[in-house]
Structure formats: C-alpha cells, structure tokens
Amino acid sequence: MSPGTGAALRLLAATVGAKAVAEIGTGTGVSGIHLLHGMRPDGVLTTVDTEPERQQFARQAFRAAGFASNRARIIPGRALDVLPRLADSGYDLVFCDGDRLEYLDYLAESLRLLRPGGLVCFEGVFSNGRTVDSGPQPTEVLRQRELLRTVRENQDLLPSLLPVGDGLLCAVKR
Question: What angle do CA 161, 40, 2 make, to 5 degrees?
C-alpha cells in the first residue's frame, strides 16, 4: 500500500466518524493501522484474511502501533465465507483489498454491511494502468472494469475514483 493510499484511508475513516470498519485482506496490517488511526478511539476494525501467518504479523503490527488488542477483530477465512456472518448495516466503512476476481461479490456484501452514509473502498483498481489500456486484458482487469462500471451505474452509490497508489475506488452508500 502506498503512503498516499494509507493517508486517504485514514482521512476517509475520520470523515465518516468510523466506529466499525470491515477490511477484506488483512495483509501484514499496514492498511489496518491507517484505518485504525482514522477511526474513533472506541472503534473496532474487523479484518478478514485467508493467511494465518499474515494475520499474526498484523496482530503484532497493531500492538507495535499502540493499539489495544480489543481494537482489531481478526477473522481467518475466505471473505465470501466470513462476510455473510457480519451484521447488516453494522459498518461505517468497508475496505476491499482481497482477491481482485471477487471484487464484484465484495461490493454486494459491502452494500449489505454498510449503514446509509457508509463508505466502500476498493484498492488497486487501476491494475497498473491496465484498466484503461485498450489491448487484450487478463480476467482480473476485465473484472476491475466491470466493478468500475457497476459502481458508476448504481443509483444507490455516489462514487469517486481517487488517483492515489494504484487507484482507490470509493463510493458512499446513499
């Protein structure tokens, strides 16, 4: 994650007054730290990843950054298996940085999870410039284009594509 993307996430979490954030793709905790810094002091980050080793790194990173262990709920598993178990309209922000081929499915789950006025964000939507390249593209890029089109055309969303990092697609749920 680029420093610009991290700063944008921190700002967005603060802007929506995030108390509950869901993150798809824990990684080593970098994005989670940015989100936690932007969230309310009593906020909880729920983060999902398939790799237990990454989650252990993230847990250590959160602790090293000074966050109490109760500020992050780390759930192992595939996002599409875990997300249906999370509360409807219970989240202020959903950050998606998991399997790019599943982004459209993450969008559907995010819309269910978000409260009105909540924000969904997708990392890496420029696909290193390939989403605007007119040549033949891999399935991942075609799915990114479909995500961009779906978000743009959804009347329940107010979208913006932020040119930070490899592209941060954000949309407010009306």
Answer: 40
